[in-house]
Amino acid sequence: MNWISEVVRPRIKTLFKRETPENLWVKCPDSGQMVFHKDVEANGFVIPGSDHHLRVTAVNRLRMTFDEGKWLDVPLPDVAVDPLKFRDEKRYVDRLKDARAKTGAVDAFKVGYGRVQGLPMTLAVQDFHFMGGSLGMAAGEAFIKGAETALEKRTPYVVFAASGGARMQEGILSLMQLPRTTVAVRRLRKAGLPYLVVLTNPTTGGVTASYAMLGDIHIAEPGALIGFAGPRVIEQTIREKLPDGFQRAEYLRDHGMVDMVVHRHDIPATLARLGRMLTGQPAAEAAPVAETPAQPVAEAV
Fold first, then answer.
1. Less Cβ around it within 10 Å: N or C end of the chain?
2. DSSP letters along 132-152, please?
3. Which fold has domain 55-285?
């Protein structure tokens, strides 16, 4: 045995080895620029320089939107787990366990109640990190619970949409959430409460075909992909090259599908302004809101 190469050298390497966290740096998808993770987090998960909007978790979205990062969590109903006993490469229950362990969430939606720029609001946030933000029974029940909370509290209802579509593992039970969420939106409209939708990257599939496109006003984050089928599927179907920027937020705004494209930093102020305008109630006259601080969670992009 060569003790210099096989014993001494490994010990020297171990002595000078520095442990580096895996998420210390973030690579910008647009420019390829490497940015320090803490700088990206401090900037609301927007890459400084390129202004690329990264995906954020539901907890971080609520923290960035509510005043002082404080809100009251709305308890969500329990639903049957894997009612179809679905299995593809692995069991659906195992996929759920993996997603819950990875994100710390029960499912793709999180609902909170608090103040945004002083105005009471109910927010429902879809988390793409949880199985692509797919719409299943739990997500449908969460959306409806958020609408019921807005009806009870008489607040605007704001939904941050981020999804790849319906959850295939729940089959027809997933598709049934499309009409159910539509009925919830109609109840809000009948009660005269604003329903605002913030479209984030990406918002596609059955979510776009239902509640994501039923808002009184549609706001989109810069560069967000929004549509039913993806661009590649459309090109293969029609056998034509799509225009530059097709299905991106700015293209849809210019063609009338989205009302406005708003930078992430300006979304809370925009929601508050629209909420006041649509309700005719200034924030100073709003009823007090019970708030509880969110538990700090350090989460990777």
1. N
2. GG-B-HHHHHHHHHHHHHHHH
3. 2-enoyl-CoA Hydratase; Chain A, domain 1 (3.90.226)
